[in-house]
Every structure is written in C-alpha cells, then in structure tokens.
Design a protein that fits this description.
Blueprint: H1 2-34, E1 36-37, E2 52-60, E3 66-74, E4 83-87, E5 91-92, H2 98-106, E6 110-114, H3 129-146, E7 153-158, H4 160-171, E8 177-181, H5 187-191, H6 195-198, H7 202-205, H8 212-215, E9 223-228, H9 237-245, E10 251-256, H10 270-281
Parallel strand pairs: 1-5, 4-6, 4-7, 7-8, 8-9, 9-10
Antiparallel strand pairs: 2-3, 3-6
Helix pairs in contact: 3-4
Length: about 280
C-alpha cells in the first residue's frame, strides 16, 4: 500500500500546484480579465448624424501625474434637455455605445460620454479601478461646466459603468439623480456567476473590487435601477440586491421582461422611466 499512498500524495501535490498556478494566473491577469478596452473607435456621433464636440479632459492622478481622457458632448436637438453623464461598461470604448447615446439624444437628453484611461484615444496603458474613478470625477467636472444647474444633471452608468457611477454619486452627489443600468453588486459577486471562479479564493486575490453593494448604503440621491430579466452577462438579481441595499428614500427598480444586457433602450418602458427620474430632479 506504500506505493498507493505515494501515488495519491503525488496526485494531491500536482492538484495543489495546479490550483496555486491558476490562482496566481488570475491574480496577475485580473486586469486583463476585468477590462476589455479597444483603441480603435469605429464609429463617432457623425455616423449617426449627431452634432458633437470632442474634448480632451485633464485628469490629476493620485500618483501626481496628469493624464488626458477623451470626451464627447452630444447635444440634443430638443431645447432645454436634461444632461446625462454616461459611463460605459468594461468592453471596447464609447464608440461601441453610440446606439444607446443616439437614442438618448433623440429622446431629448444631452450626453457627456468619456473613455477611461486605456480606452479609445484616452491616455494610459492599463485601466485600473482607482484611475477609472479619477476619470469619472474629471467627467463630472466637465458636466458641471456644461450644465451648471444641479437639478438638470443625471449620472448614468451601464454595466461596469454603473459601479463607477455609484462610487461617483456616493463621493460627489453633485447631480440630482442616478440611473444605474444592467449593473452588478460587486466584482466578488460577479465571480460567482461563472462556475470556474467559484473554486478560487477570489475574496483574497481580487484587487479590482467595485463594491457597489456597500456603497449604495450611503447613497442619498434619487436612483433608478433598470435590468433585463434575460441578461446573459449580469443576472438581474444583482440589481435587486442593489435596490434593497440602497439607503436613498427615493429609489425605484424596473425589471424589463426579456431585456438583455445592452438593449434596454429599445424597450417602450425605458424612456418613460428615465423621464420620470428627470422630472424628479427638476422639482
């Protein structure tokens, strides 16, 4: 039986080495797993016939450096529109989100969008959580310059952008309302969506955490959560958790039947809910 024990011990050692190797790989590569930026901006608002202004915004980093990120200001053809700060998700760049932005402007909303560091033509090689929060802060400064009336500003985040919007609204509630679309409760929570990650000590190795579920307990702004029930990327139960944990007395959850991750703006209840939120901020 000695030989059997040696084989068993050898197999156990190999399994531990493999587990440790996979864990180390995920720890080192998590930035490449979480962030999926592309540099090529395949479409601009010109492709949708929307007049816009492109501006490079300065961002002061905690490191002492100053970087530049690219912003687009899309003005609605309708006068006196509410202005949204649109924060996109983890993949590609803001040019990949123009369908949603075009729909927003056609519905009467002005839109300020940015690409985070490492995305599109913005400076920086590697996005990371703290730097993205800095980018969102610079974008809010620009929105305030373009729309001085706090009652006419909404912070809007989609997917990972929802987590960025929640952090921004918690730290700087310098808007009248918050719109969180198809977002998650935390990156730890997202690790449970895929079975493979459930086997890893994610809580110990994760540095890109986006802990929205803790931050919403400090929110005071009116907030609208919207999520598609058929979302294959982020389950709608995550927006339900955020809604329940949110401290704001003025909160709403809208689950869109058969909606998926990025198409909620094509459903008839999308803009009525957003306009209702906009009316809240004008009171």
């Amino acid at each position: 039986m000695i030989w059997f024990r040696r084989i068993l011990a050898g197999l156990l050692l190999l399994a531990l080495l493999a587990y440790g190797g996979i864990t180390a790989y995920v720890y080192v590569k998590q930035g490449q797993i979480v962030y999926l930026p592309t540099r090529t901006v395949e479409k601009t608002p010109d492709d949708y016939g929307i007049a816009y202004e492109e501006k490079r915004l300065s961002v002061k980093r905690a490191t002492g450096e100053t970087g530049k990120i690219t912003s687009w200001w899309l003005r609605s053809p309708r006068p006196n529109g509410i202005s949204l700060l649109f924060l996109h998700g983890n993949a590609r760049n803001m040019g990949s989100n123009l369908g949603k932005m075009a729909a927003l402007t056609q519905a009467g909303f002005n839109v300020l969008a940015i690409d985070y560091r490492g995305y599109g033509s913005s400076d920086g090689e590697r996005p990371y959580e703290a730097a993205i929060y800095e980018d969102a802060g610079a974008a809010l400064d620009e929105l305030k310059r373009r729309e001085p009336d706090i009652r006419r500003r909404i912070i809007h985040g989609h997917s990972m952008g929802g987590a960025i919007a929640i952090d921004l609204a918690m730290r700087r509630p310098e808007a009248a309302a918050l719109f969180i679309e198809s977002s998650f409760d935390s990156m730890v929570g997202m690790s449970t969506v895929r079975a493979a990650y459930r086997l890893l000590p994610i809580k110990l190795i994760l540095t890109e955490r986006f802990e929205s579920i803790d931050k919403v307990t400090q929110l005071k702004l009116p907030v609208l959560y919207m999520h598609g029930t058929a979302d294959p990327v982020i389950p709608s139960v995550m927006s339900e958790r955020l809604y329940r944990a949110t401290a704001s007395a003025d909160k709403r959850l809208l689950l869109v039947d058969k909606g998926i991750h990025s198409n909620l703006h094509t459903f008839p209840q999308y803009f009525p809910a957003l306009r209702e939120l906009a009316r809240v901020e004008q009171r």
